[in-house]
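Anyone? Bumping this.
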Amino acid sequence: MNTSIMIVGVGGQGTLLASRILGNTAIRCGYDVKVSEVHGMSQRGGSVVTYVRFGDEKVASPIIGEASADIIMAFEQLEAYRSIDYLKKNGRLLVNAQQIDPMPVIIGKAKYPENILSKIEEKGINIISVDALSLARSAGSEKAVNVVLIGLLAKNTDIEKGIWEEVIKETVPPKFLDINLKAFNLGYSI
Amino acid sequence: MKEIMLGNHAVARGAYEAGVKVASAYPGTPSTEIMEYMATLPCPHVEWAPNEKVAAETAIGSSIAGGRAICAMKHVGLNVAADPLFTAAYTGVNAGLLICVADDPGMHSSQNEQDSRNYARAAKVIMLEPSDSNECYIYAKNAFSLSEKFDLPVILRLSTRVSHSQSLVETGEREEFSKPYEKNPGKYVMMPAMAKRRHPELENILTEVKNYAQDCEFNKIEYHDKKIGIITSGITYQYAKEALGDKASYLKLGMVYPLPEKLISEFSKNVDTLYVAEELDDFFEEYIKSLGIKVIGKEAFTKIGEYSADLIRKVILKEEQKGTAPDEALPARPPVMCAGCPHRGTFYALKSLGLTVCGDIGCYTLGTLEPLASVDSCVCMGASIGLAHGMDKAIENSSKKTVAVLGDSTFIHSGITGLINVVYNKGNTTVIILDNSITGMTGHQDNPLTGKTIKGEPTKQVNLVMLCKAIGVENVRIADPFNIEQFKKVVSEEIEKDEPSVIIAQRPCALLKSVKYEGKMTVTDKCIGCKMCLKIGCPAIHFKDGHALIDKTQCNGCGFCQQICKLKALGKEEA
Ligand SMILES: Cc1ncc(C[n+]2csc(CCOP(=O)(O)OP(=O)(O)O)c2C)c(N)n1
């Protein structure tokens, strides 16, 4: 069976790097892999969705269909909520508890939904939420939110921890390596 | 070596290994990374051209000279490059010529979802379509010998999901290639006498390619269960495989023009029910039906948007998977101008002046959305100036209420001719060029106004002021869009003039590394919750519990909001 992981968030949050780390980790494990990225317009603060699919079988579609994601890793609560119909029955939702108001909410044309996490839980969805922003700050940089979440994801897969760390070493610039390894470990120990 | 590569990177890698000498492109999502990646390889010449037409012409020149050449663009870029394309089919090539064009079904980042396959038929050239990164690599690499074999340009058609997906590629080594240049006006000078000789030759060549298509390496039949047969190509092939696996047989077309008549009829005879699955137009379907073959196509699928494995499963197997959806309607999250974006100042000013704004294509198209909501039209790159001029001529004195607004890269791409037209035909249009020192929307590419090449090497920089003056614009002014009162004054003065004007709105993109604003904004206790500051649409300013609130993860301290707050309730916390 192949594994399908969907990464959702807000343009500018670093979802692309997260999907690349995940993709490279899967390759390191000898799997066939497809990663579908988003570039262009939606990177400017819009909703962004990237897909990573890997496994022993050949991966055909780079895109994940409805009710087919094994794991959804959400960088923001509203984007988590928007994506839940892509989660498989018994799939897992890993969510950063951060809330970012979209423009229609900022200008008062729409309301940010209340109690998103408990509403999702009430639907019987298996959810793990984390304050990745605080953890990233304590690791040394707000920008490391994505790597905190990668840490949490790593904990929720069967892939060995050392492989993730190797890939992070290869992916992030050397001067930010310490911060990122720290962020990864904070996410991993949740 | 096996590595995971973006489809676009794989295209560049394949072309590089084929010995490409000249590579030229104008950026455009989803094609941009082809040339960005090529610039990281030791290819002899890689460049950003000012537009797609110039990129294509540069590649044609290299091909005639004997150097294999590649150019790249997004689907609408081929509209701009269509003129050289149609006649390059007549001249043919010397060294191989590859034109990469990336379609955007679903319009993730585009103003339309035209289907480029129609260009291959209309221009009478070969078109290939890969379905994953490895095929991107192989097709790009083999396209050059194919182009030389048939003396015809080859188009490589990509789409967002192929260009922007990563999968495994087995790469190889570069082999140098060159052919001598021979003067041959009968082939390369397309004037009527020569073109009349070349056209029948072109038709003969196409017949040859058609025969070649029957059993070429690009087209493949995969027989599994023969109850269902699917003719497909590109990413849709992957969706079909995902949805149906071995429950169907496939005719995968890697060469999407010209189409293999015999192969299609053979396949159709061997399956019980035949489907054609193709995103956008009924390009294959029309052809298949013209052969008298019964096939199910658009009546079951759609011409609109992207396909998916889900769609194919639903149409062919009548199966649908449904997940758990939220019980409430969720607020949309449209893209926004970044915190610190200089365009915010321009559109805030234009909105408060109540002007009609002929917009254009770039980050600044976001000036259409609430709350700045000031753009009236956007058609294609460079169109703002022509539209404003047309409005000016249609309605008397409308130039006093109308401006054309376009980005620096867009102005160089195709705004200059529009401006010349305004001057030449005695228009009064005011043009605002948003000079943010970079090509923003497509992810920071250099252009002729930045003074740097694609490799970051210093080069001559176009002087915008001198350029506009040379065209004949007498009124050329530079203004800072973050100095809001001054900017409004400049615009008000220029639109009043019975002459053309150019205002260069100068302030760099906030995402450029060279831009450093200090500190972050804070809300002081002077805030009474009047919400004025929300009118600038800054993603870093929110409203909570009756007061403005700064989202410190987004604020970059540009300070523009301080000019808007009448109560001086926005302060700055030092870094
Ligand atoms: C013919 C054509 N080519 C390319 C594009 C892709 N494209 C959209 S906006 C843009 C660049 C805009 O840059 P600029 O005018 O400098 O404005 P900015 O985004 O920096 O504000 C490009 C290349 C397009 N839409 N149409």
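Late reply, but here is one note on the structure posted above: Residues 192-214 of chain B form the longest helix (23 residues).
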